[in-house]
Structure formats: structure tokens, C-alpha cells
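HUMAN: Would you supply a protein with C-alpha cells?

ASSISTANT:
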Amino acid sequence: MKTFKNILILGIYVLALVFGTMSFTEKNTTDIVGGYDIGDKVKDVNLKDVTGEMVSFADYDSAKGFIVIFTCNTCPYAVASEDRINALDAEFKEKGYPVIAINPNNPDVQPDDTFELMQTKASDKNFSFPYLYDASSTVYAQFGAAKTPHVYILQKEDDSLVVKYIGAIDDSVRSAAGVSKRYAADAVNALLNGQKVPLTKTKAIGCSVKV
């Protein structure tokens, strides 16, 4: 009886260890430790656009800042946001805040996120903004992006780019019809008016970055 009890305890311990390890692994694939926070200065990037050209923040001499959005070809949340991303670029590019979209996904993990399919996506959806490929999977980690879509709004201050907002595009990622709060647009409008961003952080809802 005592032997059976010992075996039962050992079995429970092994199961707890296995499930605990699984949870830890899953957490590490979806949550980035570190990354930029509000007020942090951002390093420049140098990534390939779907046009084949290399793009950096430094290329935009007249920009007041950027709407950086980590997105991809495949995530249903990202796909549902594509028209809204185009709309953000149309609304704010001429005001000094262009959209820069970055695909962080590894095509070895998510086969439909190849560079060639990024080119097809950009053409089919008439993207008006650069759609960059984070081939080395370093820029998304540098930012701390964990989801697609995941938004970072940057403002130029002297010779630096400073993070002013992190999170979701709006409060209805699944459907534009349900939007009541335009978090990203509100943040940019506040910056354009010389005001503090009303809400600096929201929860990004989307698919985990596939690396």
C-alpha cells in the first residue's frame, strides 16, 4: 500500500513537472522579456522592403515620427487590420507620421509568411507604406513585439526617436465595424497637437510572433 502511494506521488510530481515545463515554453514563445517601453529611445532599423529596397527610419528626413506596426500575411487579426493600417497611413503620412510595417515571422515556422508572399500581399492590398521583412528576427525582439498586429508610435525628439505609445490599433481588432476607440490615431493626434498621449499602453491582441 505504501509502495503504491509512493508511485502515485511520483506520478503526480512528473505530470506537474511536464505541464509546468510546457507552460513555461509556451510563455517564452509569446512574451518577449525586455524590449522598448514608453519614453525609451529607439535604434534605427535597416530592413528589406517588398520592393527590394532597404529602408531605415533615417530615410525619412521630414518625418515627425512613425507608426510602426508588426504584422504579417497570415494571422486573422493582422488580415482584419490591413485596411485600417492603410487608412492610418493615408491619414497621417502627410502630417509627418508614416506607417512602417514589419513582418517578424519566420517562414520556416509559418510557411505563408515568405518574402515572396509578402510581395503578393502588399500588391493585392495596395499597401501605401513600406512592408519590411525582419529576416534575422532581431528587430521584433529589440522592440519587444509579441503579437501581430503590435503597434509602436515613435516621435522625433532632437536626434532621437522616442516611444510614445505601445499596443493595439484600436479596441476592435477582429472587426473595424466595432471600433469605438482609435488608440493609435488618438495617440498621433495628441502628439501633433503638442499634447500628452491620453493612453500610452493598451493590450495588443493578435497571433503570437512565429520564430
Q: What stands out?
A: The mean pLDDT is 88.
